[in-house]
Specification:
alpha+beta, BirA Bifunctional Protein, domain 2, Rossmann fold, nine-stranded mixed sheet, five-stranded mixed sheet, 19 helices, about 20% strand, globular
């Protein structure tokens, strides 16, 4: 039989035990912060009806949704004219379901379906994989985990303030120091398009502006001209560009003053001022916040403040982002349920910690103790010892064979298990155990109670 060329799909990854220990650490850190801020867990299916997902992410986002072919003879309903009419006409007949693109639209669907039984404001967090048919590259995957926290049912900007606090707390607990939280407002972008002479065209403008973190202004300017924006529009837009600036800077105040006559922009700036005012009592959070007029975020359902968390001095891009979406549930026929939320991309966070050199020291095993096996006849004793340690909350394991000590110690070292318990014939007779610290190489004989206390 020919040997198969085994591989996995591009844009996906395997995670071995050591990688999973890091990822589980990230998950538990984020989960604990979410729960401390009063968010409750939620899960939704990996697949949704295609009609639920399409039309929520803009044309570009819709093209990245993974569709699932109908089971059975899915081509039986397709006619030659359907093929001639293009893929959209044929799609309706061959696919009714799709893998979720994000966790926010499924949340909106869940809220609408359960609105009569939920307590509002509804605060939920969700930690599940999503799929996008994107072009794979560094930090960009086709399958990745998102950790979302959203508040649905209130327009209070206190929610945005608490999001800023949650971001700062997660970053602190993951020991990520150098980052900024970029913030903008969708109404400022709408006001900007209006102010520069192209009212209602903020979506087209924003798609180009959002590229400024990757390309020079000239590239963006040329793209805007190609889209039909006037030279005057582009020149005026360039004059208003601020870069990434502090909310306390003179440049931010100057921009507000310059655009104060525009009603849309004024509303957006008023929201940002209110958020900054509330955050001012938390200087460690405020110092990370920056205004970025070019920040647009591609998802079309955002309607208010939008934000991204961007580490500095590394190749990894933004690791978190979100915003307010006061009209999202209206696409399912229910108005008046505003929401705001954000998401950490676990895979980006993992890549960041790896780039910062914070993952190599993490163990590849949950075990804190390895019990060495000297003699197969003593296995009942070893199993009893393991039971005692585990009941005391100590993760441990027994080497499964009576192999040479060097091999057993090498096993513990390879898995970065910090402690080894030796119970040979002499120790068992004396009713003691030898505890060896693999980090320092020191060892000491002690009784079981002392051993448990030491390890705890």
């Amino acid at each position: 039989m020919a040997k198969e060329n085994l591989s996995i799909p591009r844009g996906t990854r395997d995670f071995g035990p050591q990688q999973m220990m890091v990822r589980n650490h990230i998950f538990s850190t984020i989960r604990s912060v979410f729960e401390r801020f009063g968010f409750a867990p939620l899960e939704t299916p990996s697949m949704e009806n295609l009609s639920v997902l399409t039309g929520k992410y803009g044309d570009e986002g819709d093209q990245l949704i993974y569709k699932i072919l109908n089971s059975g003879d899915f081509l039986s309903e397709v006619k030659p004219e359907d093929v001639q009419n293009g893929h959209k006409a044929m799609l309706r007949k061959v696919s009714e379901k799709a893998l979720r693109y994000d966790l926010t639209v499924p949340l909106a669907r869940y809220v609408v379906m359960n609105r009569n039984t939920l307590t509002f404001p509804f605060k939920r967090y969700q930690m599940q994989p999503v799929w996008r048919a994107d072009r794979p590259s560094f930090g960009r995957y086709r399958e990745f985990y998102q950790c979302d926290a959203d508040v649905v049912g209130t327009k209070s900007l206190i929610c945005e303030v608490e999001i800023m606090q949650m971001i700062a707390e997660v970053m602190e607990r993951l020991e990520i120091k150098d980052y900024i939280i970029k913030i903008n407002h969708r109404q400022i972008l709408a006001g900007l398009a209006d102010f520069c002479g192209a009212p209602g065209r903020e979506a087209e403008m924003s798609v180009s502006l959002d590229k400024l973190d990757k390309v020079e202004w000239k590239v963006v300017a040329d793209e805007l001209i190609q889209k039909g924006f006037s030279e005057t529009f582009v020149q005026k837009l360039e004059q208003l560009r601020t870069g990434i600036i502090s909310f306390l800077s003179a440049d931010f105040q100057k921009l507000k003053e310059e655009m104060k006559s525009n009603e849309l922009a004024a509303k957006g700036f008023a929201d940002l001022d209110a958020i900054v005012n509330l955050v001012s009592g938390f200087p460690e959070v405020l110092e990370k916040m920056r205004f970025d007029l070019s920040l647009a975020r591609g998802l079309s359902y955002y309607s208010g403040p939008i934000f991204e968390v961007v580490p500095q001095g590394v190749k990894v891009g933004s690791i978190s982002g979100g915003g307010r979406y006061d009209e999202l549930t209206s696409v399912f026929g229910v108005d008046g349920i505003p929401g705001v939320g954000f998401s950490f991309g676990i895979d980006r966070v993992y890549d960041l910690l790896s780039e910062l050199g914070k993952t190599s020291a993490m163990p590849s095993s949950a075990s804190k103790v390895l019990v060495v096996q000297f003699d197969e006849n003593q296995v009942p004793f070893y199993l009893s010892l393991l039971s005692t340690l585990r009941k005391s909350g100590i993760s441990c394991e027994l080497y499964p064979e009576a192999a040479k000590l060097k091999k057993q110690f090498a096993y513990a070292d390879a898995k970065q298990i910090p402690w080894v318990v030796v119970a040979g014939e002499d120790e068992i007779k004396e009713n003691v155990l030898t505890l060896k610290d693999l980090g320092t190489g020191t060892q000491k004989k002690m009784g079981l109670l002392e051993l448990v206390e030491k390890l705890r």
